């Protein structure tokens, strides 16, 4: 049952706060926005920490570097421990290590994501980023390079192009055992409460439909991410964790899949009308 937090009595609010030990929060649109920290969030995090709650930052944004995340949290008046930040590049690396992945990776993602993959010891190829001939006959040798790719990773890539998607499709179709892994698969990315832009989710959907199989999702709302979080932070009772987000399709859906309690804030990508429509 959906409840509006501000409408609760003091006693109900106290019971709600007592009902969880872990606060897993999205970042963009929840903790900060395009203009900086969201008013009151830093104080709220402090109150939660003082009450003994474990606060973890769970984002679908692998474009930011660790240093940038630390700077953003510092602006809130807090410090960020590296282990308390999870985003798709981190969860993908952990997943690949957990399955002892040894093969070549083709990645459609931003530079910080690529950097983490390479630092973890994986062999990664990307591209092409340069313009290609506008001819199917001439493009075939580019997209069918016959490299032994064993995993295709799709995440936010501001330089994504049609040739990259064609190349990914060729790798996946030529080898049924080639993994398809999704990171931040938001179809819409919130910039301000009234402005969203196209996300990487549509790219992944195109590939899934083309090859006839689903990707393993290591970002929100993927179930494997929930399992990673439970294991890493020792969450033994799912309902003792609260997931806070601003997007219904990613954050609320993820919390439900993982079995967590969920709290939707209207400071980012969702509005009251969106909530009413659910």
Description:
With 278 residues, this protein is an alpha/beta fold. It has 2 domains: 5-87 and 221-277, Rossmann fold; 89-217, HAD superfamily/HAD-like (Rossmann fold, 3-Layer(aba) Sandwich). 39% of the residues lie in helices and 19% in strands. It has 11 helices and 14 strands. Strands 5-4-1-13-14 form a 5-stranded parallel sheet. Strands 7-6-8-9-12 form a 5-stranded parallel sheet, with helices on both faces. Strand 6 (104-108), helix 5 (111-119) and strand 7 (123-125) form a beta-alpha-beta unit. The protein is elongated, with a radius of gyration of 20 Å.
Compose a concise summary of this entry.
With 278 residues, the protein is an alpha/beta fold. The chain has helices spanning 10-18, 41-50, 66-75, 88-98, 111-119, 136-143, 162-174, 201-211, 223-233, 248-258, 272-277; strands at residues 22-25, 32-33, 36-37, 54-58, 85-86, 104-108, 123-125, 149-154, 179-182, 188-192, 195-198, 216-217, 241-245, 261-264. The chain has two domains: 5-87 and 221-277, HAD superfamily/HAD-like (Rossmann fold, 3-Layer(aba) Sandwich); 89-217, 3-Layer(aba) Sandwich (Rossmann fold).
What brief labels describe this structure?
metal-binding, alpha/beta, HAD-SF_hydro_IIA, five-stranded parallel sheet, Rossmann fold, HAD-like_sf, 278 residues, 2 domains, 4-nitrophenylphosphatase
Which term fits the overall shape? elongated
**Residues in helix, %:** 25-40%
Summed up, the helix count is 11
How would you spell out the order of helices and strands?
HEEEHEHEHEHEHEHEEEHEHEHEH
Query: Major β-sheet, in short?
Result: 5 strands, parallel
The protein's oligomeric status is: single chain
Strand order of the largest sheet: 5-4-1-13-14
The rounded Rg comes to 20 Å
CATH architecture of the largest domain: 3-Layer(aba) Sandwich
CATH topology of the largest domain: Rossmann fold
Note the beta-strand portion.
15-25%
Q: How many domain regions?
A: 2
């Amino acid at each position: 049952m959906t409840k509006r937090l501000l409408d609760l009595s003091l006693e109900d609010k106290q019971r709600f706060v007592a009902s969880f030990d872990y606060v897993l929060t999205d970042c963009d649109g929840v903790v900060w926005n395009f203009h900086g920290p969201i008013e009151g969030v830093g104080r709220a995090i402090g109150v939660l920490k003082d009450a003994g709650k474990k606060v973890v930052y769970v984002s679908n944004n692998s474009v930011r570097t660790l240093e940038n995340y630390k700077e953003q949290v510092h602006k809130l008046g807090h410090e960020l421990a590296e282990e308390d930040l999870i985003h798709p590049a981190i969860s993908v690396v952990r997943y690949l290590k957990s399955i002892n992945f040894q093969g070549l990776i083709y990645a459609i993602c931003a530079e910080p994501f690529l950097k983490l993959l390479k630092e973890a010891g994986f062999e990664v190829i990307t591209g092409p980023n340069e313009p290609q001939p506008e001819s199917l006959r001439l493009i075939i040798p580019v997209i069918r390079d016959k490299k032994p790719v064993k995993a295709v990773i799709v995440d936010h890539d501001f330089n994504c192009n049609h040739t990259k998607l064609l190349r990914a499709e060729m790798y996946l179709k030529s080898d049924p055992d080639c993994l398809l892994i999704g990171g931040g698969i938001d179809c819409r990315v919130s910039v301000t409460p009234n402005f969203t832009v196209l996300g990487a989710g549509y790219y992944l959907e195109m590939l899934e439909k083309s090859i006839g199989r689903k990707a393993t999702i290591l970002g929100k709302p993927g179930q494997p991410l929930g399992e990673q979080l439970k294991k890493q932070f020792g969450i033994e009772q799912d309902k003792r964790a609260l997931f806070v987000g601003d997007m219904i399709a990613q954050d609320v859906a993820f919390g439900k899949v993982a079995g967590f309690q969920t709290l939707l804030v209207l400071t980012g990508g969702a509005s009251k009308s969106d909530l009413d429509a659910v």
